[in-house]
Amino acid sequence: MALVPACQITANYYAGFAYLMIRKYGNTIQLYQHILGYMQRTKQFFQNRSFQADDINKKNEQMLALLAIASTFCPLRLDESVNIQIKEKQGDKVARIQHGDMAVYDDLFFSGCPKFLSPVVSENPTSPFGSSGPRGLQLQVFKAEVEQQRLIPTLRSFLKLYTSIPISKLAKFLDMHENEVRCCLMAFKHKKEVAKGDSTDQTTMDIDFYVDKDMVHISDTKIARHYGDYYVQQVLKLKDSNKLILGAALTPVVPANNA
């Protein structure tokens, strides 16, 4: 498979989507970062094959949309080059998610998901797939997960402000009952462990905490930024620019014929 780049990219795309649907967001991020970096390095190769370029570019857009979803559910350190691509392609949607616009998840999901096939052929609207077909069923499963994750970003933002906070105070911030806050904290812990999956990156989530009676104790794990990837990316861009400039300079100028 490694000898056929288009096959390798497609296989990794479907594997990453499968990880996303079983909530292993750490694996999705790790896989997509690897394959997007590979696509960035071999971009010149695909540009010379026009019959593959459109499909590869489409897969690139789909993976960026799914990666934006996964990184929202499971904050991990992203490579600088991949982070730049997400900001360029999906920056406005990510900003809307951070402001609480849950409808954006549907747009990102439909932008990134593959086509789904039904195992049965049925025109009955009361079938398990409904009138919207298997795509609608997969969206329902995804939206159920989004609903479970709805309060976690807000909860994380409050926890990052403190080293310890009483549950009663956190309940006032969230406008919830204390028992509901305890349930949210347990859900946060559970989602954190599930999201990590088999990922070897130990920086899954940027915060950790434990509950001792009526007090939440927070340990903030700062993610160190790595600037090497950014400089490598800029060097590659400079090399591409030099090639274009040298190619234009070496192109012979054909004099115009005077009538």
Concise account of the structure shown:
With 259 residues, the chain is mostly helical.
What does it look like?
The protein has helices spanning 5-21, 25-41, 43-47, 50-73, 80-98, 103-112, 133-149, 152-159, 167-174, 178-196, 228-250; strands at 164-166, 207-212, 215-220. It is built from eleven helices and three strands. The chain has a three-stranded antiparallel sheet. The model has no long low-confidence stretch (mean pLDDT 79). The chain is 64% helix and 6% strand. Helix 4 packs across helix 5 and helix 6 crosses helix 7 (133-149). The protein is mainly alpha-helical.
Shape verdict: globular
Rounded mean pLDDT is 79
CA radius of gyration:
23 Å
Please count the beta strands (DSSP E, at least 2 residues each): 3
Structural class: mainly alpha
Largest sheet: 3 strands, antiparallel
